[in-house]
Amino acid sequence: MKFIKHLILVLLALLLSGLQPLAARETLADGSIARIHQSELPPEARDTLRLIERGGPFPYRKDGVVFQNRERRLPAQARAYYREYTVPTPGSRDRGARRIVTGEAREYYYSADHYRSFKRIMQP
Known about the structure:
By secondary structure, the chain is of the alpha+beta class. It is 22% helix and 19% strand. The protein has a single domain, classed as Microbial ribonucleases (Nuclear Transport Factor 2, Chain: A, Roll), CATH 3.10.450.30.
């Protein structure tokens, strides 16, 4: 019983300290976010990038809303710095798990797993 209490306390301390499990991060050895070239993205993500560049119209009501970055998987920035956009998932009846998040400095990130991990999109 003591062991379980100790384990719970350790896990709680990690959670409160803001540490994230390594599996949740797609980082390189130097600590930076993994990268993906635009040509490696699924076709739906490339279509979403074109819509973002054009300014819409977007197919989902939540496209363009502020992305909070609560899990701190993207670099820390001021509130409302990031915006999120849906990448349609073929066969899905809802928005699915794929997203593109943009930053004010025109950086783009792709998440295939509903914000659990990101890859920085490298523009041509």
